[in-house]
Specification:
alpha+beta, 2 domains, 6 helices, 10 strands
C-alpha cells in the first residue's frame, strides 16, 4: 500500500509538472499576447479554413482562420477567479470592440491585418478560474488584395509566427505562406528580400542570428511551395528597427515581424 501511494504521488507529480508547460507548438495569439500570469496552454489548435459560432445574440458563425486556445492553472491557491480574468482581457481592446458581455463570455470584433478578427473569452464571472478558453477567427485578405498592396507599395509586413526564441514556423502561419507563394507565382519575375525582425529581449548578436534563421525558414517554406530560391533573399535584421515600444508586450509582439520587400 505504501509503495502504491508513492507511485501514485510520482504519477500525479509528473502530470502536474506537464500541466505547467505549454503544449508543444502552441503560442499566445498576437491579439492577446499577454496571458493571465501563471497559466499554461493545455489545448491548442489552428484550422486555416475553419469556422466558429460566437455566443452573441443570436449566435454569429464566422469563417476564416480559427484558433482554439485553452489555459489551465493547476494550483487552486492561485486561481484568480473568472472576473479577474475578464478584467485582464478587457484592458487589451477598446470597449467599442465588445459585441457581447454576459456572465459567461466576452466577445470582441475588431479590424485585423487588413481584415477583421472575432474573439471569444469563456471565463464565467462567478467561476474559480481554473480554466479559461479563447476562440478566435481571422478573416485574411484574398491573394488579389495582397498582390495589389505589394504592387502599389513594394513591401508588406507578414503575420508569420514562430515558436518563442525559435525559427520554426508555427502551423498558424501556413495560410500566410500559401498566400505569399500564390502572390509570387503571379509575379514570376519579381525578386524579394525577406527581412525578419525581433524585439530587444536578446543580445544584438543573438537576435541577429535568430532573425537570420527565421528569414531563412520563410525562404525554405516558399521554396517548398514552388518558388525559386534565387528569387528570395533572406536577411535577419535583429532588433535595431523597432516599429513599436519594446517596453510593452504588445509593442514587442509588433516588433517580432517579417517584412517582404521587392528588389528592383
Amino acid at each position: 500500500m505504501y509503495i502504491c501511494r508513492i507511485l501514485l504521488g510520482l504519477i500525479l507529480g509528473a502530470a502536474l509538472a506537464v500541466c505547467r508547460e505549454d503544449v508543444k507548438g502552441s503560442a499566445d495569439h498576437p491579439l492577446f499576447p499577454v496571458r493571465v500570469e501563471g497559466y499554461a496552454i493545455s489545448t491548442y489548435a489552428v484550422e486555416p479554413s475553419g469556422s466558429y459560432g460566437f455566443r452573441t445574440s443570436p449566435i454569429r458563425i464566422v469563417q476564416g482562420r480559427y484558433t482554439k486556445i485553452e489555459y489551465f492553472l493547476n494550483d487552486p491557491d492561485r486561481h484568480p477567479g473568472g472576473a479577474a480574468i475578464r478584467v485582464h482581457y478587457q484592458t487589451r481592446l477598446p470597449a467599442s470592440a465588445i459585441v457581447q458581455n454576459d456572465a459567461d463570455v466576452l466577445v470582441w470584433r475588431t479590424a485585423w491585418n487588413g481584415g477583421e478578427i472575432w474573439a471569444e473569452l469563456h471565463a464565467p464571472v462567478h467561476g474559480k478560474g481554473r480554466y479559461y478558453f479563447l476562440r478566435l477567427v481571422e478573416s485574411t485578405p484574398q491573394a488579389a488584395s495582397l498582390v495589389s498592396a505589394f504592387d502599389s507599395g513594394g513591401s508588406l509586413t507578414l503575420d508569420i509566427r514562430f515558436g518563442p526564441g525559435r525559427s520554426d514556423i508555427l502551423p498558424a502561419s501556413d495560410p500566410v505562406i500559401a498566400e505569399l507563394a500564390r502572390m509570387l507565382r503571379a509575379r514570376p519575375s519579381v525578386v524579394v528580400a525577406l527581412e525578419a525582425h525581433s524585439d530587444d529581449s536578446g543580445t544584438p548578436e543573438g537576435d541577429l542570428r535568430l532573425t537570420q534563421a527565421r528569414a531563412e525558414s520563410v525562404a525554405i517554406a516558399l521554396v517548398d511551395a514552388g518558388i525559386g530560391a534565387r528569387r528570395l533573399k533572406p536577411k535577419g535584421k535583429g532588433h535595431e528597427q523597432p516599429v513599436a515600444d519594446n517596453r510593452t508586450e504588445e509593442g514587442r509582439t509588433k516588433n517580432r515581424r517579417v517584412e517582404i520587400r521587392r528588389i528592383p
